[in-house]
Amino acid sequence: MAELERLGMAWSEREAAWANGVAVAREYAAVHGHVLPPTTAVWEGHPIGVWAKNARAAARRARENEELRAAGLPVPSAAGAMTEARQDELDAVDPGWCPAWDTGWQRCYRLVQNHVQAVGILPEAAGDVVVQSERYSPAA
């Protein structure tokens, strides 16, 4: 068994796919500073945008199930809900990977945060900052 594992034997395709997705998320975060890719993003041949969208949906389902349990209500199904261990794994890569608010807003926030860390100033007007091909527009 150990020899098969050294040769790359995948005992569970689902676990192997998860591990591959997390590895790609780490690479993406190392370059972009976040794991909030647009849904259309592909990183080294891996559809990281769709993978991240699906991961956020699974985390939201887990959060909704937990809210139901806390309220003493029945949980219709745990199918598709992300485990706490998997959430922790992604939190270690980027604590903001699954915001409770719109991911577009969170991505903009992270881009501005990266800009401020690199340059040291906060932009004051729309169009002052373009990071990773995305234009920052402060709220009016």
What does the model show?
With about 140 residues, this protein is mostly helical. The protein folds into 2 domains: about 1-100, no CATH class; about 100-140, no CATH class. It is built from 5 helices and 2 strands; from the N terminus they run H-H-H-H-H-E-E. The chain has helices at about 1-5, 15-30, 50-70, 85-95, 105-120, and strands spanning about 130, 135. Strands 1-2 form a two-stranded antiparallel sheet. The longest helix is centred in the middle third of the chain and has 23 residues, at about 50-70. It is flat. The mean pLDDT is about 80.
Quick structural overview:
The protein is mainly α. The protein has helices spanning 2-6, 13-32, 48-70, 84-93, 103-119, and strands spanning 129-131, 134-136.
> What is the straight-line distance between the termini?
61 Å
**Cα-based radius of gyration, to the nearest Å:** 18 Å
Mean pLDDT across all residues, rounded? 82
Q: Give the strand tally.
A: 2
Helix fraction, binned, reads 40-55%
What's the arrangement of strands in the largest beta sheet? 1-2
How many domains make up the 3D coordinates?
Answer: 2
Structural class: mainly alpha
- What portion of the residues fall into strands of 2 or more residues? under 5%
Order of helices and strands: HHHHHEE
Q: Which stretches of 5+ consecutive residues score pLDDT under 50?
A: none
Largest sheet: 2 strands, antiparallel
- State the shape: flat
Number of helices: 5
